[in-house]
Design goal:
The complex is a heterodimer. Chain A is an all-beta fold. In chain A, 0% of the residues lie in helices and 50% in strands. Chain A is built from no helices and eleven strands. In chain B, strand 5 and strand 6 form a beta hairpin. The chains are: A mainly beta, B mainly beta.
């Protein structure tokens, strides 16, 4: 079976950094983008960025430029998101999701279980 | 940034009724780059429809999508109690990829 398994919940102080992992299994890691989407408590979904595990290339939503880094370890089949200079409004559930690399879009068909990040002093 | 606007915000219907959810994009997003997701409380989103009208693997036939350019619709032909959820549309035609604010579907 195809799975994305994320690391556990984090509690951080304002100004700190957090790194969340997303381990893929059951498919070829380099055939699918990994997207990161977050959801603040009681709110909707917000796309943050994607990484192409095949090329290492990435794209980010402009609002996160300079604060977020997407990386991968192809040998481990794992993607990471690091968010720096945390603020209280970064409190959210962070999801990874896969999307097939191709000339068109196939949607994000497999999602991780989510990682709750709480930013509080 | 392409703004995705969903309506209504909340929809309350009886089992067996037909649900029609709308999604409007602030500019053309091309049919191939519009997806719908279902999110039940406490769960991760689930892909329902991609390419505006193609059902994802394992999605029941009562879910259908249509539309083009800026106007899209998700229809649930006969509501089931398990369809209670928030539904989101999303475009990945232009960066940043954006979601609508969601439509909450309730069963009377």
């Amino acid at each position: 079976q195809v799975h994305l398994v994320q690391s556990g919940a984090e509690v951080k102080k304002p100004g700190a950094s957090v790194k969340v992992s997303c381990k893929a299994s059951g498919y070829s890691f380099t055939d699918y983008y990994i997207h990161w989407v977050r959801q603040p408590p009681g709110q909707g979904l917000e796309w943050m960025g994607w990484i192409n595990p095949n090329s290492g290339g990435s794209n980010y939503a402009h609002k996160f430029h300079g604060r977020v880094t997407l990386t991968q370890d192809t040998s481990m089949g794992t993607a990471y998101i690091e968010l720096r200079s945390l603020r209280s409004d970064d409190t959210a559930v962070y999801y990874c999701a896969r999307d097939k690399v191709g000339v068109t879009s196939y949607g994000m068909d497999v999602w991780g279980q989510g990682t709750r990040v709480t930013v509080s002093s | 940034e392409i703004v995705m606007t969903q309506s209504p915000a909340t929809l309350s219907l009886s089992p067996g009724e037909r649900a029609t959810l709308s999604c409007r994009a602030s500019q053309n997003v091309n049919n191939s780059y519009l997806s719908w997701y279902q999110q039940k409380p406490g769960q991760a989103p689930r892909l329902l429809i991609y390419g505006a009208s193609i059902r994802a693997t394992g999605i029941p036939a009562r879910f259908s999508g249509r539309g083009s350019e800026t106007d899209f619709t998700l229809t649930i032909s006969s509501l089931q109690p398990e369809d209670v959820a928030v539904y989101y549309c999303q475009q990945d035609y232009n960066l940043p990829y954006t979601f609508g604010q969601g439509t909450k579907l309730e069963i009377k």
